[in-house]
Model the fold of this input.
Amino acid sequence: MLREKITAAGRLGETGRAGHGPAMPTTPPSPREKKRFREIFDRFEAAMPDPRTELTYASPFTLLVAVVLSAQATDVSVNKATPALFAAADTPQKMLALGAEGVAPLISAIGLFNTKARNVVALSRILVEQYGGAVPLRREALQALPGVGRKTASVVLNELGVEPAIAVDTHVFRVAHRLGLSRARTPDLVEADLMAIVPKAGLTRAHHWLILHGRYVCVARKPACGRCPVADLCPSRELFTGG
Ligand code: SF4
Done:
């Protein structure tokens, strides 16, 4: 019954979600759609066999900080700021010693830098006081940190190979809809749909495939359908090419 309700929420564009765990997938795909999905991910794999995050990091802590800083900001802007930040503080202990007043000027080119500086220092304090300076690689523990939501935790866990996850940002959301991989109206429900249809072998890479495809090919305003590796499998292509 709960699953039916959530399925309906996904189709109708409501924001239904059960608790803090992953949402349930919306309508299961037909065999024909499954075949199309497989082909799409096969092609992404052929085009990007070893996709990586574009954020620069050297440890779980610097990855976590970089992902927190990247919320509503570009990876490029984060990568410009983090060399100086990590030169000054590449451990929770050093970040805590630097303090928000020390962090803020180093990340001032990134949106919401004051809030992010406070969060980075607050989460560093928790890592020092509760985890001996280590990053807890568990979803609940990560999501309890200041500035860390489900999406950030997913990126960190997936990137470090702890737990396959597809963090649904604006690029993933757009590509999933254009390719007809999901019709759900919330990131959590799109994530559930994607987790249900991506072939197992591609689960840890699917997040990168979809983000990179959205960032460089299926861009928001004028998608480059002419050089899209899955154009013949895309139900939205005609909208942009006129046929
Ligand atoms: S064909 Fe165009 S709209 Fe469809 S996925 Fe490719 S770039 Fe995006």
